[in-house]
Structure formats: structure tokens, C-alpha cells
Amino acid sequence: MSVQAYTVEQVAEILQIGRDKIYFLLRTGQLRSIKIGKLRRITDQQLAEFVASLEKENVAP
């Protein structure tokens, strides 16, 4: 099993949004993450779940 874990800065770059917006999404529970010691990481699965949730929100009825 191979899991990729990204920093907040890497996820901000991937999504092309600001670092502060990533922290907001984490704080509000819209984007999940893991903590390894003092480091916060976002796994590829957590990122995929977040993107999928956005796709569901944007589907027209």
C-alpha cells in the first residue's frame, strides 16, 4: 500500500489556492488531514475525497 502525503503548501499549489484557504478548509472540517508529531499532512485519499465532495456540490439537479 502506497500513500502519498502532502504538506499544506503542496496542496495549496496543487489546487492553485492560497495556504490560508487550505488552513480554513482544515479548520472547518471540509478537508481532512493527519498529524505526524507536529507536522500536518494531507494524504492523496483525503485530497481525492475533498475534490469529490466539491464535484457533488456542483452537480446541477
Q: What is the general shape?
A: globular
Task: Supply the helix-strand structural class.
Answer: alpha+beta
Distance between the termini: 37 Å
Strand percentage lies at 15-25%
Query: Count of helices?
Result: 3
Number of E strands: 3
Major beta-sheet overview: 3 strands, antiparallel
Number of domains: 1
Q: Gyration radius, to the nearest Å? A: 12 Å
The low-confidence runs, each spanning 5 or more residues with pLDDT under 50, are none
Strands of the largest sheet, in order across it? 1-3-2
Average pLDDT across residues?
93
SSE order, one letter for each helix or strand:
EHHEEH
Percent helix range: 40-55%
GO molecular function, one term: DNA binding
Domain Helix-turn-helix: 6-53
InterPro entries: DNA-bd_dom_put_sf (IPR009061), HTH_17 (IPR041657), SinI_DNA-bd (IPR010093)
Protein name: Helix-turn-helix domain-containing protein
